[in-house]
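[step 3/7] fold_predict: job queued, chain A
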Amino acid sequence: MTASAIFDSVVRHRRFNPMGHQMRYRVYSLLIDIDEVDGLASAIPVFSHNRWNLISFHDKDHGPRDGSDLREWISPHLSDAGVDATGPIRMMVFPRILGYTFNPMTIWFVYSKDERLAAVLYEIHNTFGHAHSHLIVFTDGADPLKVPRHGFDKALHVSPFFDRTGRYEISLKAPSDDFSIAISYLDPEGERLLGASQKGNRREFTTRNLVWQFFAKPFVTIKVIVGIHLHAFRLLTKGAKYRSVPRPPAQEVESVILQHTTIDS
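[step 4/7] structure written:
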């Protein structure tokens, strides 16, 4: 059994302020162990690494987005934050479907050699072609099933209907038999503006399961981007104020160091 897996998931978004709005849709994500991806591509006919296929994973969609080696990209950022970069690294992504994808957020799970969670990197993308990453470091190592609540200040302009201010607060359960993440977006006064979540159950990374997901949820990555723009149009019709798009942050990755992250059971 591989560490890589498919997660059959439900995504929810709910906007609280300045006007109510919500959406829910079924998706599937891939958990990709970056040391397994070439072996998976060799073993599974409908899956490829850096080549077109029914379903594929491309290095150029993540990290520096230039197609270079992903471990080589993240390792200096981890080392600068005091994290051993030699353990397993697994990424929760929307794959390319027939060559297309859009990942609002890629989540990198960085493990120590004893499988404790050493760090999580949230790589955020907007629909304007910009990306920015936040590295959360757990100095004592975290139990993947009891990840401490954490967060970071908003740095990237994501929605044109919100200012580039405020903070994200995150509750996370790292992938095991299931996976969940819940994100609250707060304004500078602490008022909740938006909530987003994804919950999923593990499926083995096999040809049969990939084909089933492909036909059960056809063109899911196109559905994501179309859904974003459709709901943006609905917000405009409700009177939401459109903000112009500022330049993205100059710093590629920002780090947050969490001390004493062990949670007693």
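[step 5/7] annotate
The helical segments are 37-43, 70-80, 207-216, 220-237.
The longest strand covers residues 21-33.
exit 0
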